[in-house]
């Protein structure tokens, strides 16, 4: 293994899930895990099997990983139980994860306070648990909880905990700044001391961001000898969050000679990866985020614009395209063509850069994004928009009208119920079809009525299902007249795809997203439109 190789470990789906207000669904976890794997991360930690139904469902049917090792998180065995009879370890063993990361106490204060056992017994817990897991998984990693606090209080004991994990067969010893209170210089000094004491061990670093130093501390640890770095997308995590793995990936790739599994082509998807998380969480992206924020390469009028137009290096520390972002000139925005061309190449569309249709597409995307569309998280809708501009998408159906009604009433048993009914009229080829369907809410009813009309002509749609639905209010100051953005994730035999609709009417926005999802499915399947 090259000493310049840094292994990237993402813990968004476990540590990031502890963020206040964050509640991943199984669909969220699958989409995020697949995106992390595609970009080239070495480890994706999926959660804690046995901790909650969501994690249990995710680990029961995880996505197929091509690059990353799938990791389950847990803790060392409980005092008074053997590793073989510990239910927490059993859940990890039974999971479909290929590796396990076990957290254990390394601060003597916590061994006394939280576990209430002798210090020597805690070493046995660590050694036994790691050995048990190493014998049953491809890898067992040790997460040294509160390691830096433990080192400051009792360096000898903190080191003994690492030795116990190494004796048990741990592939990595991950040093955790669990409360985020250790500064970069301290991190560098302590990691260096551990490196000297355990020269054969593979060390990792896991920093929280309570002093806004998590990325800096992680880089300091790497310089001192750590070869695995852990973090979360956009720095997600409890309290002030974790080290932002998006920033770490870009910095390691573009600012240092360290090597990672993220190549130059994958790096161009970093902005989309960052924004994917925010779309899944239904929250706005940070516009000032390093590398990937909307304002990361924005320049206002005057001297800055003049200098950037002559030589972008004047005010841009890296080319925005290298991380999938774009330059934004606030006064006279000429950016966007290269970004659109890159997106077209991603979906397999080759077009002459001087083709006038590209210019029209750029302006259409800008107009729609001004209205509230977000194509970074809705690749299927962007593909349809682009292919329609290029004249490649046939007319599979045409909406004549739809109507949705909600009926809130007391039923015969005295229960208050709300029922939704949708009526849809569409033209399919030369035939006009009207259908009616009930549903669990207006969007479900609309979806069912539309499918009911289309399925006889396009039976391939029967395998398609809606897996996620999110609504964001774009103009909250407008109250009940606010513009809404609807993101819909669909799934079928061709995988998963996301579409977007925007309108002051949430049902209209939902229909637009639903229609895009159906058309994308038909187009990608090569279905011919009805005559």
TrEMBL record:
Gene Ontology MF annotations: (R)-citramalate synthase activity; 2-isopropylmalate synthase activity
User: Which Enzyme Commission number(s) are listed?
Assistant: 2.3.3.21
User: What's the catalysed reaction?
Assistant: pyruvate + acetyl-CoA + H2O = (3R)-citramalate + CoA + H(+)
Q: In which pathway does it act?
A: Amino-acid biosynthesis; L-isoleucine biosynthesis; 2-oxobutanoate from pyruvate: step 1/3
Q: Which Pfam families does the UniProt record give?
A: HCS_D2 (PF22617), HMGL-like (PF00682), LeuA_dimer (PF08502)
Keywords for this entry?
Amino-acid biosynthesis, Branched-chain amino acid biosynthesis, Isoleucine biosynthesis, Transferase
Q: Which residues form the Pyruvate carboxyltransferase domain?
A: 6-268
The main enzyme category here is transferase
Annotated InterPro entries? 2-isopropylmalate_synth_dimer, AIPM/Hcit_synth_CS, Aldolase_TIM, Citramal_synthase, LeuA/HCS_post-cat, LeuA_allosteric_dom_sf, PYR_CT
Q: Name one GO biological process term.
A: isoleucine biosynthetic process
Residues in coiled coil:
none
CDD domains given in the database record: DRE_TIM_LeuA3 (cd07941)
Family according to the record = Belongs to the alpha-IPM synthase/homocitrate synthase family.
Name used for this protein in its record? Citramalate synthase
Q: Which organism is it from?
A: Tistlia consotensis USBA 355
């Amino acid at each position: 293994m090259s000493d310049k190789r840094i292994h990237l470990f993402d813990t968004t789906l476990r540590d990031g899930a502890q963020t206040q207000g964050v509640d991943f669904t199984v669909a969220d976890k699958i989409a995020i895990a697949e995106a992390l794997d595609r970009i080239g991360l070495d480890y994706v930690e999926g959660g804690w099997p046995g901790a909650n139904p969501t994690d249990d469902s995710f680990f029961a049917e995880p996505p197929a990983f091509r690059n990353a090792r799938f990791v389950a998180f847990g803790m060392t065995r409980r005092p008074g139980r053997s590793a073989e009879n510990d239910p927490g370890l059993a859940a990890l063993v039974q999971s479909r994860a290929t590796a396990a990361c076990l957290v254990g106490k390394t601060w003597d204060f916590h061994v006394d306070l939280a576990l209430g056992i002798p210090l020597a017994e805690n070493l046995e817990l660590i050694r036994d648990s790691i050995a048990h897991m190493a014998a049953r998984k491809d890898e067992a990693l040790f997460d040294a909880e509160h390691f830096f606090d433990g080192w400051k209080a009792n360096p000898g004991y903190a080191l003994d905990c690492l030795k116990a994990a190494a004796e048990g067969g741990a592939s990595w010893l991950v040093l955790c700044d669990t409360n985020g209170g250790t500064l970069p210089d301290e991190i560098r000094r302590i990691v260096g001391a551990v490196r000297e004491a355990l020269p054969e061990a593979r060390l990792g670093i896991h920093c929280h961001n309570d002093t806004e130093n998590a990325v800096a501390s992680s880089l300091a640890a790497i310089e001192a000898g750590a070869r695995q770095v852990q973090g979360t997308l956009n720095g997600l995590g409890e309290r002030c969050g974790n080290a932002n793995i998006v920033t770490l990936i870009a910095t390691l790739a573009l600012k240092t000679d360290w090597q990672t599994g993220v190549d130059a082509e994958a790096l161009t998807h970093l902005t989309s990866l960052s924004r994917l998380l925010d779309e899944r969480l239904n929250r706005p992206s940070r516009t000032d985020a390093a590398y990937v924020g909307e304002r990361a390469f924005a320049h206002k009028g005057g001297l800055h614009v003049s200098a950037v137009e002559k030589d972008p290096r004047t005010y841009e520390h890296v080319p925005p395209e290298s991380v999938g972002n774009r330059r934004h000139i606030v006064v006279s925005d000429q950016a966007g063509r290269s970004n659109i061309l890159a997106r077209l190449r991603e979906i397999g569309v080759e077009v002459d850069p001087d083709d006038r249709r590209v210019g029209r597409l750029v302006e259409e995307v800008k107009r729609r994004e001004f209205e509230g569309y977000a194509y970074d998280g809705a690749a299927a809708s962007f593909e349809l928009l682009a292919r329609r501009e290029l004249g490649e998408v046939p007319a599979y159906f045409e909406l004549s009208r739809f109507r949705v009604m909600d009926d809130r009433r007391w039923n015969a048993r005295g229960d208050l119920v709300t029922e939704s009914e949708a009526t849809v009229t569409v033209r399919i080829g030369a035939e006009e079809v009207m259908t009616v369907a009930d549903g669990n809410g207006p969007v479900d009813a609309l979806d069912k009525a539309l499918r009911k009309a289309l399925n006889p002509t396009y039976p391939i749609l029967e395998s398609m299902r809606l897996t996620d639905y999110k609504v964001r209010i774009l103009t909250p100051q407008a109250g009940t007249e606010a513009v809404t953005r609807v993101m819909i994730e669909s799934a079928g035999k061709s995988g998963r795809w996301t579409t977007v609709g925007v309108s002051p009417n949430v049902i209209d926005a939902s229909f637009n997203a639903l229609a895009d999802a159906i058309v994308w499915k038909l187009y990608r399947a090569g279905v011919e439109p009805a005559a």
